[in-house]
Design goal:
The chain is α/β, with parallel strands linked by helices. It has 24 helices and 18 strands. The longest helix has 26 residues. The N and C termini lie far apart (about 65 Å).
């Protein structure tokens, strides 16, 4: 087999094929969205093994996270390359930085996650009333026992922390569930329950990243006590004393149980002699998603390179550097020459995912002097791949008012349903749809609404849900981006980042953080093969929307919709008539009929004129449709 055989086997374009012939000891592959970065790297590995005769065991591939490593390993297997998690005869090793670091430790350690320990300790403090109840309720909008039950149900069953291993029998409040103040949040799609989950996830993520930053910077536990919270920052004031106490106990628990945490898996090998058989024979090291490398990952990589003197091939895209909250630094990629002066840079500029028009629109939006300039092109034509979907907000309503948030989410969910119908009716390949969102709470109402309607089955669509962050590296025929509005929890995010633990030892509210929001928006909008539908409210749209080149944008205005029955004619085409009820419409006096669409029941009068619609839905407080359909309570 020769080089041309490999090019033919993988059907490489000229840019991708140039990787195989490059003889530089250090290579930087600058790969834009959809340019086949992973595929080209796998082709190069295949070439090393089958043309150059490199032993597969002498090749190491490092990836940012476990999911990415698993996916890369699977792609290798599909293309005739044996791949494994650990050193294995005849196999390329594909690992994360953390699993590599753990394998280099001389003595086995127990991995004990701070997040698990924190939740156990938090429940202990809640049960002992050691936390300010008033502040707790203000932050979480729920009672003590509600969040305790949530944590017990979803986090504590599989872990054992001695005194902190709390079960139901240790919790007297469980036997008091009939208490009038008790609120049970069902796991099966309850909106408020999911809001609680999101808030707890944010708290947990903030605390975990905070202590990880402490370790990354080489501080001991006493350093935490140098931090003071500004009384004007309620979250910091509430969390900091808790985290100080938990962290001290956590480090003590690690010591007593021969334990290490996630950060230690990378940091501890740097303090030991890592000259082991695992790495001494390495000839080639590939690093995927290099734009997301942190200080500790970089130091571990340099330590390995200094011992084995392997060739280095890194790939990534600084336009998609979106992990700074985890300590990742874009400079390692965008200023690669500073860290690796002797290198060759290879550009992958031809994308097969995006249309040429999306390349131009997204490129104009993201490009700036601080990042590597690229010229992304595509052989595909699609005149207006960006669909801005606007709807007028109800008069007198404030989109940033959390008490009215559910009304806006209901309107947005109905708009999404109409977009899904439009995608389903399209003659283009359209089965696969991603619904993307900045915050998990943006997903909850829309997902529940779509599931209740049975839209996925009714419209023959495969719908998946991702945050902007977790969508990275994925692609779908169409995407829908939620809540692209100009407010604190919109896009870009304007949450007061100074009122969080990470502001003390990590990032702060700065221009660089705003730049990352821009890269996050770019990452999301470029997941599509066909159209990116961006949902917003008229006059409240994200500043990012206003920056998009109108040449590539289709602007669409939706009428105000308040509930499932708006757009009656639209749904009637697909709804099944069930029966005529005993109720009459107060406007036209026609009978009220019961319909079913998917798994959702709803009512409408036979006439259902504009005046009828106003009477049904013009005043949210009337809830007329519900009263008419009382015998059929499932419908709404």
């Amino acid at each position: 087999m020769n080089t041309q055989d490999v090019i033919n086997k993988f059907d490489l374009n000229e840019e991708q094929a140039s990787i195989l012939s490059c003889e530089a000891k250090v290579k930087q592959i600058v790969a834009s969205a959809g340019t086949g970065k992973s595929y080209a790297m796998i082709a190069d590995i295949y070439h090393k093994i089958n043309v150059e005769g490199v032993n597969p065991e002498d090749i190491l591939v490092l990836s940012y996270g476990r999911a990415c490593a698993d996916e890369f390993r699977e792609k290798c297997q599909k293309n005739g390359i044996m791949a494994a998690k650990r050193l294995q005869r005849g196999a390329v090793r594909v690992a994360t930085f953390h699993s590599l670091g753990y394998s280099l430790l001389k003595n086995n350690k127990n991995i004990i996650m701070f997040s698990d320990f924190f939740l156990h300790y938090l429940v202990k403090m809640l049960l002992n009333k050691e936390i300010d109840e008033a502040m707790f309720k203000k932050l979480f909008t729920v009672e003590y026992h509600t969040i305790i039950k949530y944590i017990l149900d979803n986090h504590l069953e599989s872990n054992d922390f001695g005194d902190f291993n709390l079960k139901y029998e240790h919790w007297p409040l469980w036997r008091c569930s009939a208490n009038s103040n008790y609120t049970y949040y069902s796991m099966n799609g309850n909106y408020k329950y999911l809001e609680l989950k999101d808030k707890l996830d944010l708290l947990l993520g903030d605390a975990t990243t905070f202590v990880s930053n402490e370790k990354e910077q080489g501080y001991d536990e006493m350093h935490l006590f140098k931090y003071d919270a500004d009384p004007g920052k309620p979250i910091l004031t509430f969390l900091l004393p808790i985290v100080k106490e938990v962290y001290v106990e956590y480090l003590k628990f690690l010591k007593d149980n021969n334990g290490i945490d996630f950060s230690d898996m990378i940091l501890l090998p740097l303090k030991e002699d890592i000259k082991t058989n695992d790495i001494k024979n390495l000839k080639y090291i590939y690093v995927d998603e290099f734009q997301d490398i942190s200080d500790s990952r970089y130091e571990l990589l340099q330590e390995v390179l200094s011992y084995c003197d392997a060739n280095l091939i890194v790939a990534g895209d600084d336009w998609q550097a979106i992990m700074s909250f985890n300590g990742c630094k874009i400079d390692y990629f965008s200023k690669f020459e500073k860290y690796f002066p002797e290198h060759e840079r290879i550009f992958l500029n031809t994308t097969y995912r995006l249309s040429d028009q999306m390349c131009k629109a997204s490129g104009e939006f993201i490009d700036n002097e601080y990042m590597i300039s690229k010229n992304l092109v595509s052989p595909r034509y699609h005149e207006k791949p960006i669909k801005i979907s606007l709807i007028e907000p109800p008069k007198g309503m404030d989109i940033s008012n959390s008490e009215e948030e559910y009304l806006f989410k209901e309107i947005e969910a109905n708009m999404v349903a109409q977009i899904l119908k439009e995608i389903s009716d399209s003659e283009e390949l359209s089965n696969n749809v991603y619904i993307l969102y900045r915050y998990k709470s943006d997903r909850n109402y829309v997902r529940n609404y779509i599931q209740k309607l049975g839209l996925e089955k009714a419209l023959d669509l495969n719908i998946e849900y991702y945050t902007f962050h977790t969508s990275k590296g994925l692609e779908a025929n169409n995407i829908i981006m939620l809540n692209c509005n100009n407010h604190a929890r919109g896009v870009p995010s304007r949450i007061n980042i100074d009122d969080c633990l990470c502001s003390l030892n990590g990032f702060s509210a700065s221009d660089s953080q705003y730049d990352e929001e821009r890269r996050l928006f770019y990452t999301a909008i470029t997941r599509t093969k066909q159209n990116s539908y961006i949902c917003s409210f008229t006059g409240k749209q994200s500043v990012f929307i206003d920056e998009l080149n109108t040449k590539f944008v289709e602007l669409r205005h939706f009428e105000e919709i308040r509930g499932i029955l708006d757009g009656h004619e639209h749904w009637m085409e697909y709804a099944d008539f069930i029966e005529e009820t005993d109720y009459k419409c107060p406007v036209c006096s026609e009978p009220i009929w019961l319909y079913k669409f998917g798994e959702m029941y709803f009512c409408a009068c036979a006439d259902f004129s504009e005046d009828c619609k106003k009477e049904f839905f013009g005043n949210k407080k009337k809830k007329l449709a519900i009263s008419y359909a009382k015998p059929h309570r499932r419908f709404y």
